[in-house]
Description:
The chain has a single domain (2-152, 180-212, 257-265), classed as Vaccinia Virus protein VP39 (Rossmann fold), CATH 3.40.50. It is 41% helix and 17% strand. The protein contains 9 helices and 7 strands. The protein has helices at 2-5, 15-30, 48-57, 79-87, 127-140, 159-175, 187-196, 214-224, 234-250, and strands at 38-42, 62-67, 95-99, 112-118, 141-149, 201-207, 260-265. The mean pLDDT is 96.
Amino acid sequence: MEKLLTYMKTVGSSSIQRIQLQHRLGLVQAFNIEKGMRVLEIGCGQGDTTVALADAVGETGFVMSIDIAGRDYGKPITLGEATDFIKSSPIGNRVSFDLEADFLTMKIEETYDVAILSHCLWYFQEPATLLSYLKRLKQVAKHICIAEWDLEWTKPEQLAHFYSASILAIYAEQFEDEGNIQNIFHKEQLKDMLKESGWNLVDSKNVDASFLQDGKWEVDYAISVREKFNHSPVKIQTLIQSYYALLQKASNKDVQSLNSIVLIAN
């Protein structure tokens, strides 16, 4: 893992990146990625999962990574800076990035061994758009692997992540926020979408993500936007006040992230 960390652009200490990469390596192992595979990655972001995928496919494999966000998106490191750094690394020749790319309209001339959507589903502003992605992916990939936060928490310490994510999903709807939580999908909803798109679910598994920093980050962000709800409709205010009360109680424990649910379909 230490070698892979050198392929990723960091600011300051690499401790956060190390923890994030550890999780991505666990996800890629759960995806059953093999040497020589050609992979289509949707929602690559700054390339954390891309690096893990590129390592898994080896020198004979290839990873095509796309994201609808532009090169200037992201902080303190932009997508452009992060992906350029990966391209200049020893694994750069087995990776291609296409940013500000609309998957639904872009031209794809090959069939990939597997399509990957890793922790990008909550970014989708409309469930119908995600469904359209899944339907098109059925035409260009033999298999699909999805990873997203599992709403079915297993430890009380994960409740704060669940409550804060719920608050931020409502916040996105109320204030047209473009944050990283637009829609929250339960795994059963995702299974239904896969079936409707023509995919056949073959495996479902959980990957421990409780050690990640994401839960704490979402809690901090949810707390920072609390006053924005003061002018929301009364029923929304009542609901949000309840969520914040639950969040405050849950935050008294050491906050842990929700685990990841992995779905694999053919």
